[in-house]
Amino acid sequence: MADDYILELDDVSKYFGTVIALQGVTLRLKRGEVHCLLGDNGAGKSTLIKTLAGVHQPSSGAYRVDGEQVRFNSPREALDRGIATVYQDLALVPLMSVARNFFAGREPRRKMFGVIPVIDMNYANETARDKLAEMGIRVRDASQPVGTMSGGERQCLAIARAIHFGAKVLILDEPTAALGVKQSCNVLKLIHNARERGISVIFITHNVHHAYPIADSFTLLNRGQSMGTFAKRDITKEEVLDMMAGGTEIQSLVDELEGRAA
Amino acid sequence: MSAINESVTNMIHSNRAKAPEEAASTDERVRKISPWRVLLDRPELGSIAGTVLVFVFFGIFAGGSGMFALDGVINWAQVAGYLGIIAVGACLLMIAGEFDLSMGSMIGFAGVMVAIPPMYLGWPLWASVIFAFVGSMALGALNGYLVVRTKLPSFIVTLAFMFILRGLTLVLSTGFANSTIVSGIGDKFTEDPVVSALFQGTTLHWLFSALAGMNLIEKLPSGDPVVAGLPKVLVWWIVMAVAAGFVLARTRFGNWIYTVGGDANAAKNVGVPVRRVKISLFVLTAFCACLFGVLQVADVGSAAADRGLQKEFEAIIAVVIGGTLLTGGFGSVIGACFGALIFGVVQIGISYTNIDSDWYRVFLGGMLLLAVLFNHYIRSRAAATK
């Protein structure tokens, strides 16, 4: 059965000195599903994804990829196993062109005059343009700076790049946090798109309205502990919201504001 | 609302025959950029405009003075060449987001590294030239290592080396030569055919003679051209500029330089070896400074403790006039070369005019300020869009 899961964290804890960042968290990502990781600020979401991405090593517990126990010493090693993380800062350089950003660190090369290795800019431009087009973003000219793109487009560029370089698991850190309604919608479409291609996605957010439509299952984190994983059919949006720390608190705030305070 | 969007999108697409239907969403609309805007986005535009400006200025005020005669041209081109060599190195380093304030002191230090061993320790000149290059590059690597290791601003680390190297230059020259000038090295250059061929005097003599023979360039009463040949410093400048420009624009390492300067954290996250890139560029600036020093020692025939004073600032000014951002991530080698050219033309040109040459620095400061304002405008346009 373990083979159903592409990524598994089993009873993982992470301590930073005296601070317990994660305590006995279990997270199982099925092949080809969109798994939403929900939690308020300080719930341990960042630590969890950094553990998945190979930035942190678990203090205890097991991390399995394709059923095989792993211990990543660097993000590079996780990347080599097809686990790509798109952080909130996107790792894009605004002043550089779309194509140069797309291939930064992994530039395609050809030999000029048969000897001098140069970047194959034609290939880079065409590939960047095509891959973005597949994501529904039209770039007329892949040599335009990324700075001219909208936040949503940049998010899509970062995701398209991860997919192009062979991501089997995409970890998206709050991809909709800084976006407007329409742009968030585009990113959600893109996540759906990735799932269609058989890519498994971990989608970190604290916005249930973004998470609920796209997710197949939810894991809720609160104060470093998992409150459980739920399939979408077993839980309603309101229940998810309630389980997040904010749910009851917002309700009591609403009550208070409306003069119904107990 | 959507009708308006559609008509706008249609307008945008109207001149492109096969605009795909799915592009017609407001969020992903395709912008049209006029050729003028594309030109404005080039980093070197400001420096080219500046160059035209200074040429027009001196054309008016010094047109008849011989400044634009062949010997005059070689005169200011040589000044530009020296500065251009270090500006090329400074340019790549600044695009990668760091400074090297020790370049000027490195010029002086490289000079004594070349001059002292043959004069006082009995070394052959070729050995001391190699020693100077290896020594400078090792110091550059140390600069770079300290910067990436301590994560201190390179401004401070290289400022320290600016003083350390200047002081060492003085200590060594007074210690060995009992003077701030180490003289007599010019003869050693002339005696060494290889080193002389590489760094001393001029080249392409046959071309200049031939041109003089065809009356295409001015010649002396004897029939020889007024200028014997192309100074080696200009050859080196061109070689360095072409090589650096090529690396920056076309190679993987060039892309890494841009990425590191644009956002070092992003560069690390996409797997660019940030430290290696930065250290190699500090080595490059040290190499350029040493090249400057060796060429100057070969030309003047001596090394001196005050050589290259303030050259680091002149290099930075040339680079900034050339459109490179002080914060890194954007710039061009061609721009830096035009920046150096402006320097040469202004510094030499002002003595051809009736203007008091004391105004030289005022003029340069003004150029710098204008260039920075211009670059700031470009950057805010390129990066501020969200």
Automatic annotation (TrEMBL), chain A:
The keyword Iron-sulfur does not apply. The keyword Protease does not apply. Pfam families: ABC_tran. Keywords: ATP-binding, Nucleotide-binding, Sugar transport, Transport. SUPFAM superfamilies: P-loop containing nucleoside triphosphate hydrolases. This is Simple sugar transport system ATP-binding protein. GO terms for molecular function: ATP binding. Residues 7-248 form the ABC transporter domain.
TrEMBL record, chain B:
It is found in: Cell inner membrane. This is Xylose transport system permease protein XylH. Belongs to the binding-protein-dependent transport system permease family. AraH/RbsC subfamily. PANTHER family: ABC TRANSPORTER PERMEASE PROTEIN YPHD-RELATED-RELATED, XYLOSE TRANSPORT SYSTEM PERMEASE PROTEIN XYLH. The chain crosses the membrane at residues 45-70, 76-96, 103-120, 126-148, 155-177, 229-249, 279-304, 316-347, 359-378. Pfam families: BPD_transp_2. It comes from Luteibacter jiangsuensis. Its main location: membrane. The keyword Membrane applies. InterPro entries: ABC_transp_permease (IPR001851). It is a multi-pass membrane protein. Keywords: Cell inner membrane, Cell membrane, Membrane, Sugar transport, Transmembrane, Transmembrane helix, Transport. Part of the binding-protein-dependent transport system for D-xylose. Probably responsible for the translocation of the substrate across the membrane.
